[in-house]
Write a structure and sequence with these properties.
Distance between the termini: 48 Å
Radius of gyration: 18 Å
Structural class: mainly alpha
Order of helices and strands: HHHHHHHHH
Number of helices: 9
Number of strands: 0
């Protein structure tokens, strides 16, 4: 389907073109949503499951989508992916009886198990530093730094005010710089 995003959104909402339009959405956004989810849940298989759940939820609820721009579609998909990612962490939390923020050491251990032998040391330190952040800071940092989303879109995704997001991002960036600069970061 070669069409602009407005035509895609119209097709998504129609009975006739929804499946083809949704194929386009999956093709164009699955990688972004995968990496967003992967940065939250860490494990490859779990991130793949989250993306699949995201698209099933989006397709099932396309009638509730009210946006008309690519930004609003992307924010809606990110919100669904974030919700499913956090649910995946909550399921994991139930197995170890801890809070989501307490899962950080488990997430870091999962990350260490998936590090490629030739991984860049500074990249590994950066990822570990991000995983050590509280969840709210981690989310806003990932969405802003890696996904390069504006604070307005992040606000739609998280339901937080822009000023709160800016504060969380500031503290997250400060903490990440501090942790990455430590020579003996574990």
């Amino acid at each position: 389907m070669n069409a602009d995003i407005t035509q895609i959104i119209v097709a998504l909402k129609s009975a006739n073109g929804a499946v083809r339009a949704f194929d386009w959405v999956i093709e164009h956004y699955s990688e972004r949503l995968y990496w967003h989810s992967r940065r939250i849940v860490v494990q490859h298989e779990e991130a793949e499951d989250v993306v699949q759940e995201t698209f099933v939820t989006a397709f099932s609820n396309i009638g509730s989508f009210r946006g008309e721009t690519e930004g609003s579609l992307l924010a809606w998909l990110y919100k669904i992916a974030t919700t499913h990612s956090l649910k995946a962490l909550k399921r994991r939390r139930r197995h170890i009886f801890t809070s989501i923020d307490s899962l950080n050491s488990t997430l870091i251990a999962d990350f260490e198990g998936e590090i490629a032998p030739d991984a860049d040391e500074i990249t590994v330190k950066l990822q570990k530093a991000i995983l050590a952040l509280p969840m709210k800071q981690k989310l806003v940092f990932n969405l802003r730094y890696f996904d390069e989303l504006p604070f307005e879109a992040i606000s739609q995704i998280t339901g937080q005010s822009i000023s709160t997001l800016k504060t969380n991002y500031h503290y997250a960036a400060k903490r990440v710089k501090q942790l990455v600069s430590q020579l003996d970061f574990e």
